[in-house]
Design brief:
Elements (H helix, E strand, L loop, with lengths): L1 H37 E10 L2 E4 L5 E6 L6 E2 L4 E5 L2 H71 L5 H68 L2 E3 L4 E3 L9 E2 L6 E5 L4 E7 L11 E6 L6 E9 L25 E8 L5 H4 L6 E7 L2
Antiparallel strand pairs: 1-10, 1-14, 2-9, 3-5, 3-8, 4-7, 5-6, 7-9, 10-13, 11-12, 11-14, 12-13
Helix pairs in contact: 2-3
Amino acid sequence: MQETTAPKKRSKGFVIVLAALVIGGGAFGITKYIHGQHHEETDNAQIDANVSPVIPRVSGYVKEVRVKDNQFVKKGDTLIILDDRDLAIKVQSAEAALLAAEANKTAAAAATQAAETGIGQAQAQIGTIDAQIEAAKVNVWRANQDYERYANLIKDHSITQQQYEQALAAKQSAERQLDVLQRQKTAATRQTTVVSSQSTATSKQISLADAAIKQRQTDVADAELVKSYAVLIAPEDGYLSKIYVQPGQYVNAGQSLFSVVLNNTPWVVANFKETQLTKMKLGQKVTIKIDAYPGKELEAKITSFAPTTGAKMALLPPDNASGNFVKVVQRLPVKIEFTNPSDELVKNLRPGMNVEVDVHLD
């Protein structure tokens, strides 16, 4: 009897364990199925943030490095100072050119003033000559009257020949004097025209001098601006990456020296399979689990979908027209932002940290 009872007990135990496994497995499967109908998950996700590279705008030797690795800096803090002696020389050269341009304007203005004074003097001289011409015309008229009277008297021998010759000489002298004054007026008028032309030319020189001054002022401003580039400052508040530059090192304009991770709210970039996107849409609730902080969860929401898949934006994107097409499930980056960005845990997150994402489907 004992030999027949033992197998039955063992058989009942096995059935109970098997039933428990089946029930447990079924419950787990049902739970996962139900969860899968209302959630989409992926562990292909990382923390991301804005990273601003520190790039010099001029080439030169590093004079001083004022920051250290991982240091927190504020916007406007000095990071690196380059040797700016050659840039300072260019500023001085531009300032000297500006002084020369201003001196040229002063000379042109003085020449214009002198020309205007000359015009006034020439016009005054013409006025004086006009008065002298009027007086000379009166003298010519009087001399002509005397000559005609003496000419009639000489015929009657009422005057001497000497008196007649004196009247003729006075007439001729008055006519010559009038001719001389008229020639002087013509010359003075020509001189006035010449001086006026010179004044116009010097006035244009002032305009050219003004233009040259503006150009030199621009050169000075440009040289000072370039000189200011020798001081590299923090573009925004944030933490520095590793500093890859040392004093005495030569850096080129446009060379990335290190980066500033901006001190703003990070976000999550989750790469979901294209087959997971069917029910996903903007605004859906997301639960974030962070590998660095086990057992802690953060709430977030979907804010945007990338316009292309990750493979399309790769350095060598796949070309399905080459004849060796292999269908691969693509992944699309999805941007997820934290609901409570002021959470202390969110502030401790760093770009590149791995996270697990659970999207709650509607």
